[in-house]
Design a protein that fits this description.
Layout (H helix, E strand, L loop, with lengths): L32 H7 L28 H4 L23 E8 L21 H4 L7 E8 L9 E8 L4 H4 L9 H9 L2 E9 L5 E3 L7 E3 L4 E5 L18 E3 L4 E6 L5 E5 L14 H5 L33 E4 L9 E3 L11 E4 L4 E7 L3 E3 L1 E9 L5 H4 L6 E8 L4 E6 L16 H6 L1 H7 L5 E2 L1 E6 L6 E6 L26 E7 L8 E9 L15 E2 L5 E6 L5 E5 L3 H4 L11 E5 L5 E7 L5 E7 L5 E7 L32 E7 L8
Parallel strand pairs: 7-12, 24-28
Antiparallel strand pairs: 1-31, 2-3, 3-4, 4-5, 4-6, 7-8, 9-10, 10-11, 11-12, 13-14, 14-16, 15-19, 16-17, 17-18, 18-23, 20-21, 21-22, 22-23, 25-26, 26-27, 27-28, 29-30, 30-31
The structure holds MU-OXO-diiron and calcium ion (CA) (2 copies).
One calcium ion binds next to strand 9.
Length: 657
C-alpha cells in the first residue's frame, strides 16, 4: 500500500469503446460561427448571437433564480488580477476574501464541536461532526425558507474526496476499520448555518439546529424506475430501496423549491475486485484494485466480489432538504447513473423542470432530464417529488451546428431487452450503455453546466480537457470537440429551439477555446480576449447574469511547458457574447477553484478552494505537508486545508460591478 492519491484517476482514461458516429476532422471547416467571428476583425459581439437572440433580454422564466433589478445592466467593473504563483487567494483591489469553514472546523452540532487538531489527531467521531475534506459544489439558501435574505442562511456543500495521507497523524499506518470510518466521515456533504454580523463579516453559527453532516453512512431513500430493481438489491438491502450514503460528491444543483442536489462523480474509484471486471463494470471504469481509498479492505460492501450490486447504488443525483436536518436524502434514479459532475436546474415556461448534467470522463456525454409533472410555486412538498418521474435525454451535436436530445426510453429503437435493457430500471443503471446505443456525441469531459438567467434556453457547458482526443484508437475530432490533444478544454453553448428548455432540438456553437494567446499551436491556443485560462471546470451565472468560470488545471499539466507562466488555478468572469474575460481570483498553490454561490443580493460570493498543496503525485506529501502550500492557516498550521472563502466588496457593492 502507498499513499498516492490520484484524484479523478479515471477521468482521463476512457472507458467508452462504443462505436458512435465520429465526424471527420472538421476543425478547420467549423470552429463555430462564434469563434470564426471572433477571429475576424470588423464584426462586433452582437453579430455573433444566434438568430433570434438579443443581448440582455430579461424575459427568462429561469428568473426564479434571477433578480431583474440587478440583472439589467450586466457589466464587469473590477480591475483584473494578474497570473499568480503566490500561496494565497488574491482578489481585485476593493474586495476582501476571508477563508472560513475549513476542513476539520466544527459543523455546529450541539454538544459536539471538537476543535481541529493540526497534527491530524482528531478522532473518527470528531470527523463525523467536522467539515469534510476537499470542498466542492456549494449552494446558499436564505433563512428563513422562502425569503431572499442575504445576511443569514445555510450553506450546503460537497466534500468530494479524501486524502488519507493528510487525514491522519500517521497516514495509513495500522490501517483498520476505525481509520476507514474516519476516512468515510471526511467525505459527503455539510450543511452549516451562517450569518453576517454587524461588521459585515460572515460567521458560522454554532451550535445550529440546521447543522448536519451527510456521509457514506447516511441512509438514503431511492426514487424512480430503478427503485426496488433486482440490480439495486443487496444482502443488506433486499428490497433495493434504502442505500447507505453518498460519496465522491462533486458539483451540485439548486432547485427553486429550496433543496440541494449533490452529484456522485468518481464513486467507481472506491470499489475493488479480486476478479476480472465485467464489461458493465469496465464501462463505468470500475477497476480491479483500489490503492487510494482502501475502504474495501475492511468495509466489504466496496468489494464487488462480495457485493456485486453495490456499485449500482452509486452514480446518482441525490436531493437533500437543507431546511430539515431530519429529512432523508433521496437518490433520484430517473436522472441516470453516470459519473455525475453537476445537476443544473431550470424551469420551462410550462413549469416542467429541466435538469442539465455532465458525465465527467473523457469521451462521455451531456444529458438532460425533463420532469413529467409541473413545478408549483406554492407547493413545496409536491415539488420535492418532481425529480422522481420524467424522461432522460442525451445530446447529439451535429456537424452543421444543429443538435438533438435523444430520449433514453426502454422499448424505443434499439433500447430493448435483446440489447441489455429489459426495463427502464435496468436502462437507467446502464445509462452510459444506453447513450452509447443511441449514438450520442462523445465530449471532452463534460463538467459544469450553467443556464443564462436572462435568456431562455441558453446553456453553457465546460469541457475541461481531453488529451486522448484524436489519438490512435480513440475518437477523432468533431465539430463540437474540435481539438486533438485538447490540453486546455473549451466551453460549448447551445440555444434550445424556441428558447424553450424542454425542446428536443437546439443550435450550438463554441463560446471559447481555452488556452493561451502567445502560441500558434492550435492544441493550446486560446481565442478569448483578455484573461487566458486553461481547463474550465466550475461554471455559474450570478444573479446579475455574469458568467463565472473556475479552473482546474491538473497539477501534472501545471508542470507542462505549455502552461509555463500561467500560475495557479483561477477564476475569470465574462459577459456571454462579449468575448471579454477578466481574471477575478487566483488560488493558493496546488489548489483548484470550485463551488461558487452568491447571496440573492449579489453582494457576497462564496467560493471553495480545493486541495491546496496538491503535488504532481496527486496529494500533499505526508512527510512534509506544507511543502507546496500552507494555506489557509499559514506557518502556524500543520497542513493545508480545503476551505470556503467568502468575498465581499469593501464598499458593500455588487460583486463584479
Ligand atoms: Fe469532480 Fe469533474 O470534477
Ligand atoms: Ca469539477
Ligand atoms: Ca475537474
Amino acid at each position: 500500500m502507498n499513499n498516492k492519491l490520484l484524484k479523478h484517476v479515471n477521468e482521463d482514461v476512457s472507458s467508452n469503446d462504443s462505436a458512435n458516429p465520429i465526424f471527420s476532422d472538421v476543425m478547420q471547416t467549423r470552429l463555430s460561427r462564434r469563434s470564426l467571428l471572433q477571429s475576424g476583425t470588423a464584426l462586433g459581439a452582437a453579430a455573433a448571437l444566434p438568430v433570434g437572440m438579443s443581448l440582455f433580454s430579461t424575459d427568462a422564466k429561469a428568473g426564479v433564480f434571477a433578480d431583474d433589478n440587478i440583472g439589467k445592466a450586466r457589466q464587469l467593473g473590477f480591475s483584473p488580477v494578474p497570473f499568480s504563483s503566490e500561496d494565497a487567494v488574491i482578489v481585485p483591489k476593493g474586495y476582501t476574501a476571508q477563508a472560513f469553514y475549513k476542513w476539520g472546523d466544527a459543523v455546529g452540532i450541539d454538544g459536539r464541536m471538537p476543535e481541529f487538531k493540526q497534527d491530524g489527531s482528531n478522532t473518527t467521531q470528531d470527523q463525523a461532526v467536522q467539515a469534510g475534506m476537499h470542498h466542492d459544489g456549494m449552494a446558499f439558501f436564505s433563512l428563513p425558507l422562502g425569503s431572499k435574505n442575504s445576511k443569514h442562511g445555510l450553506l450546503a456543500m460537497n466534500h468530494e474526496y479524501v486524502d488519507n495521507g493528510m487525514l491522519f497523524k500517521d497516514g495509513i499506518a495500522d490501517w483498520d476499520a476505525n481509520k476507514i470510518r474516519k476516512s468515510q466521515n471526511a467525505m459527503g456533504v455539510s450543511v452549516i448555518e451562517i450569518r453576517q454580523d454587524n461588521n459585515q463579516e460572515w460567521q458560522v453559527v454554532r451550535p445550529s439546529a440546521y447543522a448536519r453532516r451527510i456521509t457514506p453512512h447516511t441512509p438514503m431513500r431511492v426514487s424512480g424506475p430503478a427503485r426496488g430493481h433486482d440490480l439495486m438489491k443487496t444482502k443488506a438491502d433486499p428490497r433495493g430501496e434504502v442505500i447507505l450514503g453518498t460519496m465522491q460528491n462533486c458539483a451540485n444543483g439548486l432547485t427553486p423549491w429550496g433543496t440541494y442536489l449533490t452529484c456522485e462523480e468518481n464513486w467507481a474509484d472506491i470499489f475493488t475486485t479480486q476478479g476480472v471486471p465485467t464489461a458493465e463494470e469496465k464501462r463505468y471504469g470500475i477497476g480491479s484494485k483500489d490503492e487510494v481509498y482502501l475502504w474495501s479492505e475492511q468495509d466489504f460492501r466496496f468489494d464487488i466480489g462480495l457485493t456485486p450490486n453495490e456499485p449500482n447504488r452509486f452514480g446518482w443525483v441525490v436531493e437533500i432538504d437543507p431546511y430539515d436536518p431530519k429529512s432523508t436524502p433521496i437518490k433520484h434514479t430517473a436522472l441516470g447513473r453516470i459519473k455525475h459532475e453537476g445537476a443544473t436546474v431550470t424551469i420551462a415556461s410550462d413549469n416542467r423542470v429541466v435538469v442539465y448534467m455532465g458525465d465527467d470522463q473523457v469521451f462521455e456525454y451531456i444529458y438532460k432530464f425533463i420532469s413529467k409533472n409541473h413545478y408549483q410555486p406554492n407547493n413545496r412538498e409536491a415539488n420535492k417529488r418532481l425529480l422522481e418521474e420524467g424522461t432522460l435525454y442525451v445530446a447529439r451535436f451535429d456537424e452543421n451546428g444543429n443538435g438533438e436530445w435523444i430520449p433514453l426510453i426502454q422499448g424505443q429503437g434499439k433500447l430493448i431487452a435483446a440489447n441489455g435493457f429489459a426495463d427502464q430500471g435496468e436502462l437507467l443503471v446502464k445509462t452510459r450503455q444506453a447513450a452509447d446505443t443511441v449514438g450520442a456525441t462523445k465530449m471532452d469531459r463534460p463538467e459544469w453546466i450553467a443556464v443564462d438567467p436572462y435568456k431562455n434556453g441558453s446553456v453553457y457547458c465546460t469541457l475541461t480537457n481531453n488529451k486522448d482526443r484524436g489519438k490512435d484508437g480513440k475518437a477523432g475530432t468533431d465539430a463540437a470537440n474540435p481539438r486533438a490533444d485538447n490540453l486546455f478544454g473549451h466551453i460549448i453553448h447551445w440555444q434550445e429551439a424556441d428558447r424553450n428548455p424542454t425542446a428536443l432540438q437546439f443550435k450550438w456553437d463554441i463560446l471559447v477555446l481555452a488556452g493561451r494567446h502567445d502560441t500558434d499551436d492550435t492544441r493550446f491556443k486560446g481565442n478569448m480576449a483578455g484573461a487566458e485560462f486553461g481547463s474550465p471546470d466550475g461554471l455559474s451565472f450570478d444573479h446579475r447574469g455574469v458568467l463565472w468560470i473556475q479552473t482546474d488545471v491538473s497539477t501534472s499539466t501545471l508542470n507542462e511547458k505549455e502552461y509555463a507562466g500561467m500560475g495557479n488555478n483561477q477564476m475569470v468572469a465574462t459577459i456571454p457574447d462579449s468575448n471579454e474575460y477578466r481574471r477575478f481570483l487566483t488560488g493558493p498553490n496546488g489548489s483548484e477553484i470550485t463551488g461558487i454561490t452568491f447571496t440573492p443580493d449579489n453582494k457576497t460570493l462564496f467560493i471553495n478552494i480545493q486541495h491546496p498543496g496538491e503535488s504532481r503525485s496527486g496529494t500533499a506529501d505526508p512527510a512534509n505537508p506544507k511543502a507546496i502550500s500552507a494555506w489557509p492557516d499559514g506557518e502556524s498550521g500543520g497542513r493545508p486545508r480545503s476551505a470556503t472563502v467568502v468575498i465581499t466588496k469593501d464598499d458593500g457593492g455588487l460583486i463584479g460591478s
